[in-house]
Amino acid sequence: MSRRRVEGATRWLVLLALALVWQVVTTVKQSFFFPTVTQILSEARRAWLSGPASSAFLTPAFRQDILPSLERLLAGWLLAVVLGIALGTAIGLRRNLADYLNPIVEFLRSLPPPALIPPFLVVLGIGSGMKIVLIAVGVVWPILLNTIDGVRTVDPTLLDTGRAFQVGRLRRLTMIVLPAAAPKIFAGLRLSLSLSLILMVISEMVAASAGIGYQIVQAQRSFAMTQMWAGILLLGVLGYALNSGLLIFERRALAWHSGARGRGEG
Predict the structure, then answer these.
(1) Could you tell me the CA-to-CA distances from 50 to 58, 166, 186, 219, 229 in Å, in that order?
(2) What count of other Cβ atoms lies within 10 Å of the Cβ of residue 226?
(3) Which of 159, 155, 148 is nearest to 90 (CA)?
(4) DSSP state of 255
(5) Cβ contact 179:142 at 8 Å
(6) Spatial separation of the C-alpha atoms in residues 74 and 234, rounded to whole Å
């Protein structure tokens, strides 16, 4: 068995061990606030996976709460990806511009995104637009800074070679600069995706009438502890699935890069 498979199996065994410990402890203690794993899984299935076969066993609650949350998360993250890579590339290509803009960037990225919810509510209301903008503004910084750093550290020899062969600016950008900066850009993408999930939940907890975060808060307020924990479990599953999907895409996109190969083997 390969090292990658052994490590993957070990991670799952650790997770199963933790679930077993939770199951045993909660069964013995029988706390109202901490249901057993089987109760949480049963509630999750009842809430989201007990629909008719014609709808792939998905319930109306899945379509009303989970899908809108995923749409907001992905829309905000993709908006941040476009803005972060575009602005980061433009700034990184000009050696001195990043130094001049550094104080402004550091000040803006130091603002806690949840603190922006009140002004965003005043300007954008409580609709999905506010949540998408909040996610984009909150997670753009890792992408922007990593793109700037990646573009600025491209090997000058590669650029000089492109100029020597009279490669146009656009082709140098798409064939030399961005591929060379891609490993650092992907590092920013992974971090920003995790932050997107956090901000999606926070925005729905504060100002929403539907969504995963809203349902978790409503369950807590009505003392539906099993439903609350089912929502928390769902967030963990979504975070793991999104990160795994991005890692698979990164490994394929950066198959030529030794660092990406190392992560794939690990």
Answers:
(1) 6, 61, 37, 19, 18
(2) 20
(3) 148
(4) T
(5) no
(6) 16
C-alpha 130/C-alpha 114 separation (Å) is 12
Which of 67-72's residues contact partners 24+ apart within 8 Å by CB, and which partners?
68/128, 68/210, 68/211, 69/200, 69/204, 69/211, 69/212, 69/213, 70/238, 71/128, 72/128, 72/131, 72/132, 72/135, 72/200, 72/203, 72/204, 72/211
> CB 128: neighbour CB atoms within 10 A?
19
- Token pair belonging to 95: 């050696």
First-to-last C-alpha distance (Å) of the chain: 13
Report the predicted TM-score, pTM, of the whole model to 2 decimal places.
0.87
Which of 220, 231, 196 has the alpha carbon at shortest distance from 32?
220
Pick the CATH number of 58-265 from 3.90.190.20, 3.30.565.10, 1.10.3720.10, 1.10.3210.10: 1.10.3720.10
User: Whole-angstrom Cα distance, residue 114 to residue 134?
Assistant: 8
The residues spanned by each domain of the chain are 58-265
- Each of the 266 residues of the chain gets a pLDDT tens digit; together they read 567 777 667 878 888 999 999 999 999 988 999 999 999 999 999 999 888 888 878 888 888 889 999 999 999 999 999 999 999 999 988 878 877 888 888 898 888 988 999 999 898 888 889 999 999 999 999 999 999 999 888 877 777 677 776 677 787 778 888 888 899 999 999 999 999 999 999 999 987 788 899 999 999 999 999 999 999 999 999 999 999 999 999 988 888 765 544 444 44
226 Cβ neighbours under 8 A, 6+ residues apart = 35, 39, 40, 43
DSSP string, 151-180: HHTS-HHHHHHHHHTT--HHHHIIIIIHHH
